[in-house]
């Protein structure tokens, strides 16, 4: 069976919600609280996240008893696409809202749910993703960070790396090997909630190409986790991390990272009819990605597993994100420079510097195509 | 999908399986009219599906028409299914009565000279080219622009001179020479749609056919890759092959969802940009899909004997017809840029069927 996307319409009720979000953002913009930027979903601004939390825009789909508003994934879709389209600095809470919170809601203990979810929803508690390690990238099942069972908990040693905003976050959900690799490498892995403020954690920020300390390295030295910090059951880490990755890949940030550049490109192309065709081609791709992504949000609403659909959207979406600056530079020539007064020159510079990451983070293009090929019965 | 449609789809697939064997498709490409196929389609209610109920149709809309055309194309059905469905729908909107057993639609561009006749009829003179299936049609609907808007003129090609021509897939794309052809008032009907929107609807039907043919190309390619053994294993086990086929699946999925969304609102000219998008995406993907399919199939795919060309030649023909990707991308881009930096995002949101209809000019 070829993968298809069920055409999905945003319900009528999302119109009011969208108008509210736009009002809020216009207020923020006119107060000068942020400057629209490409890749804004990694820009960390804790105060902005708190204001979003206060308005109920974080953890929207969670039950009210855990600080959510029991909204549908389509409602959430509308909120996050507006935030991205406006280039708003949503990086602080992004990971907690997109994947860690959902992971805790589905697999966490009641204690953890009560302790963490309302704080995440309030925009006060931020998470990182603890999957990659120095020797472990695409081949995630080979993680080497070890958890050793001790009285009342687990002693954890090892290194996580490329952790987005990990040096600013409060917690990490980390994939740890808790029994030696057997024949099936997917067994013996466990997800832990790691409190980054406890002893036994050493964090070093890492600068990316754009001179932004976007991610970091985290070293565990006899970090003591409690039994209650385990997500799901011991040894179930692979199933859990697979679920987490599907959430991580499922959203519109996988094709909207460059949207502020498209806006600047349109500004400059108004007097350049020769550029219209190429811009139309990019707009057509964007419209398709948006319909696909709404369809994925619809699947999440129905409780369907979005693994395959998310892999498709992420692969096509990130390719679009990589192509847009390449096209822009040819249709409206510029010497891109970060910090240039001209919005186009600045956005182009930032997008070019971030572009390599789009087709790596969250699973590389090659890994995603492997997932799709498997579904097609090719491997 | 509603029940009528599910039922039609099941019947349709069964009869296409039977009536669109390679041999039959190739005989049609050699110029034979496949009467058993058309009769079977008629028995299943297909050609009249979009005619109003009072004209013995099922009263279905363009979403259903696109759905049916996509399935027909996925079997390379050598018959004017898309054309007849659109013609019946348009005539239903404009006039309401029955049209013809087999019909086609053509935008009667500036090449048609019209003279008014007493009694409300018109006399048409001009040379028209590339009319799908005209030689087999009982009626060609010419969409004419006149001072008051658009007008459908029902022309019987049997009463005019046709010059048989074919596209790259050997489907009839005929010339029609009108020499003071009389069209009576009863064969004229005012259409409550702008001509350029009918052009978009034609493009929508072609896009639906492209998606159907692409789906079959991908399925065939997967099958072949799993069967063909080289270096001691099926070529499907090679990652280079896997990634190319994964890309095919992506392209088809993207074209498919946009097609369905565009078709859902195709009657509404305010939603035209989504149709432009559908044809632009499908036309571009068509070339990519055909290229990958042929690469995977190796020399075998380069033969007349292999089935693949029944689909890839259609893709190469259809991607150009009713506007290729450059044509529609240019319109889309011009309109996008006209929204300006502030208007761009609200416009994008508005294009989707659940959005407020966007500005189209
Ligand atoms: C900006 C950024 C932020 C990130 N944030 C996080 C984070 O918060 N948390 C986290 O855990 N990780 C994070 N990552 C890490 C990210 O998940 C990894 O970069 C990714 O999984 C790839 O791993 P790698 O970089 O080690 O590359 P490798 O796995 O070493 O791959 C290198 C190249 O080889 C290819 N390759 C590998 N295996 C195969 C194969 N089987 N077949 C074909 N090709 C293959 C890859 O596709 C790639 O092109 C982040 C990365 C970036 C760039």
Explained architecture:
The complex is a heterodimer of chains A (379) and B (361). Chain A is of the alpha+beta class. Chain A has three domains: 13-125, Orthogonal Bundle (Butyryl-Coa Dehydrogenase, subunit A, domain 1), CATH 1.10.540.10; 129-236, Butyryl-CoA Dehydrogenase, subunit A, domain 2, CATH 2.40.110.10; 250-375, Butyryl-CoA Dehydrogenase, subunit A, domain 3. Helices cover 46% and strands 15% of the residues of chain A. In chain A, the strands form two sheets. Chain A has a four-stranded mixed sheet with strand order 1-4-5-8. In chain A, strands 2-3-7-6 form a four-stranded antiparallel sheet, with no helix packed on it. In chain A, helix 8 (259-269) packs parallel to helix 10 (307-331). Chain A is globular and about 70 Å long. In chain A, 55% of the residues are buried. Chain B has eleven helices and ten strands. In chain B, helix 4 (62-74) runs parallel beside helix 6 (195-227), helix 6 (195-227) runs parallel beside helix 8 and helix 7 packs antiparallel against helix 8 (272-297). The longest helix of chain B is centred in the middle third of the chain and has 33 residues, at 195-227. The structure holds flavin-adenine dinucleotide. The site of flavin-adenine dinucleotide has 19 residues of chain A, from strand 1, strand 3 and helix 12. The site of flavin-adenine dinucleotide (FAD) has 19 residues of chain A, from strand 1, strand 3 and helix 12.
List descriptors.
heterodimer; A: 379 residues; alpha+beta; Butyryl-Coa Dehydrogenase, subunit A, domain 1; Butyryl-CoA Dehydrogenase, subunit A, domain 2; Butyryl-CoA Dehydrogenase, subunit A, domain 3; four-stranded antiparallel β-sheet; 12 helices; 46% helix; 15% strand; globular; B: 361 residues; 10 strands; 51% helix; binds flavin-adenine dinucleotide
């Amino acid at each position: 069976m070829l993968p298809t996307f069920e055409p999905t319409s945003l319900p009528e009720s999302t119109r009011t919600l969208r108008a509210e979000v736009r009002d809020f953002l216009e207020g923020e913009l006119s107060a000068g609280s942020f400057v629209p930027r490409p890749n804004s979903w990694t820009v960390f601004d804790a105060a902005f996240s708190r204001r979003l939390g206060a308005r109920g825009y974080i953890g929207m789909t969670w039950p009210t008893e855990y600080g959510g508003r029991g909204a549908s994934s389509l409602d959430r879709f509308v909120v996050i696409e507006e935030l991205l389209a406006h280039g708003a600095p949503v990086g602080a809470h992004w990971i907690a809202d997109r994947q860690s919170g959902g992971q805790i809601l589905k697999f966490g203990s009641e204690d953890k749910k009560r302790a963490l979810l309302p704080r995440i929803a309030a925009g006060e508690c931020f998470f990182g993703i603890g999957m990659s390690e120095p020797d472990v990238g695409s081949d995630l099942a080979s993680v080497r960070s070890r958890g050793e069972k001790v009285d009342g908990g687990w002693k954890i040693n090892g290194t996580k790396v490329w952790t987005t905003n990990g040096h600013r976050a409060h917690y990490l959900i980390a994939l740890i090997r808790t029994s030696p690799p057997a024949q099936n490498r997917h067994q013996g892995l466990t997800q832990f909630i790691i409190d980054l403020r406890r002893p036994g954690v050493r964090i070093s920020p890492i600068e990316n190409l754009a001179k932004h300390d976007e991610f970091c390295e985290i070293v565990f030295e006899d970090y003591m986790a409690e039994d209650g910090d385990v997500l799901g059951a011991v040894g179930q880490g692979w199933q859990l991390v697979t679920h987490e990755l599907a959430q991580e890949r499922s959203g519109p940030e996988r094709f909207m990272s460059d949207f502020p550049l498209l806006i600047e490109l349109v500004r400059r192309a108004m007097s350049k009819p020769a550029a219209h065709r190429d811009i139309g081609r990019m707009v057509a791709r964007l419209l398709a990605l948006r319909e696909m992504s709404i369809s994925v949000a619809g699947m999440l609403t129905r409780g369907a597993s979005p693994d395959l659909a998310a892999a498709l959207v992420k692969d096509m979406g990130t390719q679009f994100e990589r192509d847009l600056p390449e096209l822009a530079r040819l249709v409206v020539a510029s010497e891109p420079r970060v910090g240039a007064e001209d919005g186009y020159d600045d956005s182009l510079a930032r997008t070019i510097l971030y572009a390599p990451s789009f087709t790596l983070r969250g699973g590389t293009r090659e890994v995603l195509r492997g997932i799709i090929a498997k579904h097609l019965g090719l491997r | 999908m509603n029940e009528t449609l599910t039922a039609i789809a099941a019947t349709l697939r069964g009869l296409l399986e039977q009536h669109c064997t390679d041999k039959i498709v190739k005989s049609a490409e050699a110029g034979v009219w496949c009467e058993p196929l058309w009769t079977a389609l008629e028995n299943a209610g297909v050609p009249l599906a979009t005619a109003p109920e009072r004209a013995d149709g099922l009263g279905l809309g363009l979403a259903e028409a696109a759905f049916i055309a996509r399935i027909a194309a996925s079997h390379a059905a050598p018959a004017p299914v898309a054309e007849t469905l659109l013609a019946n729908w348009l005539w239903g909107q404009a006039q309401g009565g029955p049209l013809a057993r087999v019909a086609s639609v053509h935008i009667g561009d500036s090449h048609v000279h019209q003279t008014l006749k007493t009694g409300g009829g018109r006399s048409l003179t001009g040379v028209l080219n590339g009319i799908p299936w005209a030689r087999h049609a009982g009626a060609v609907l010419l969409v004419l622009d006149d001072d008051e808007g658009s007008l459908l003129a029902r022309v019987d090609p049997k009463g005019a001179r046709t010059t048989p021509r074919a596209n790259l897939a050997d489907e009839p794309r005929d010339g029609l020479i009108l020499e003071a052809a009389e069209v009576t008032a009863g064969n004229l009907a005012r259409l409550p749609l702008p001509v350029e929107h009918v052009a978009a609807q034609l493009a929508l039907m072609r896009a639906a056919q492209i998606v159907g043919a692409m789906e079959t190309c991908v399925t065939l390619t997967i099958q072949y890759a799993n069967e063909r053994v080289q270096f001691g294993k099926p070529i499907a086990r090679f990652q280079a092959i896997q990634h190319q086929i994964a890309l095919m699946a992506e392209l088809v999925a993207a074209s498919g969802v946009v097609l369905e969304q565009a078709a859902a609102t195709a009657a509404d000219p305010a939603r035209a940009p989504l149709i432009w998008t559908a044809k632009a995406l499908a036309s571009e993907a068509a070339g990519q899909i055909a290229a990958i399919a042929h690469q995977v199939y190796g020399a075998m795919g380069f033969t007349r004997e292999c089935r693949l060309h029944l689909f890839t030649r259609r893709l190469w023909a259809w991607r150009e017809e009713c506007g290729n990707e450059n044509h529609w991308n240019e319109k889309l881009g011009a309109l996008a840029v006209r929204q300006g930096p502030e208007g761009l995002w609200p416009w994008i949101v508005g294009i989707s069927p659940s959005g407020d209809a966007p500005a189209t000019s």
